[in-house]
Amino acid sequence: MAKKVFPEAMGRLYNRVFVCKVCKAKMRADSAKVRLGKVKCRTCGSHALRPKKKPLV
Ligand SMILES: [Zn+2]
Prior knowledge:
The chain contains two helices and three strands; from the N terminus they run αββαβ. It has helices at 7-15, 31-35, and strands spanning 17-20, 26-28, 49-51.
């Protein structure tokens, strides 16, 4: 049985993953909270986060 890739599920997975612009740490967070500045990097404490892009496979 071949594994199926679900584009919607992939988008949902990556839409909620953010990367710290300072130390490149990845973290899962609510995008609304990130926009409100309520999420900070747990490694360096920075609020500079960007959403992780889907890998081009
Ligand atoms: Zn950081």
